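Per your request, structure below.
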């Protein structure tokens, strides 16, 4: 892809959301992913917690869909 080509609207939307999330994290935690105070085990733990939350959200959505059909 050439640099002067625009991204599609979906990609642009996701990029904007990533930037907003990064700014929110910086405001909330006072740091970003360039931080060096966490080791690999800490990062794995953070990821596991985030994925566990994602599974809970999926289960909630499945329940909502089941109840709406």
């Amino acid at each position: 892809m050439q640099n002067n080509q625009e991204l599609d609207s979906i990609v642009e939307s996701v990029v904007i959301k990533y930037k907003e999330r990064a700014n929110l994290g910086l405001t909330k935690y006072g740091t970003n992913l360039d931080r060096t105070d966490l080791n690999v085990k800490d990062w794995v733990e953070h990821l596991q917690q985030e994925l566990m939350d994602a599974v809970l959200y999926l289960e909630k959505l499945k329940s909502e869909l089941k109840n709406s059909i």
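Residues 40-68 form the longest helix (29 residues).

Regards,
D.
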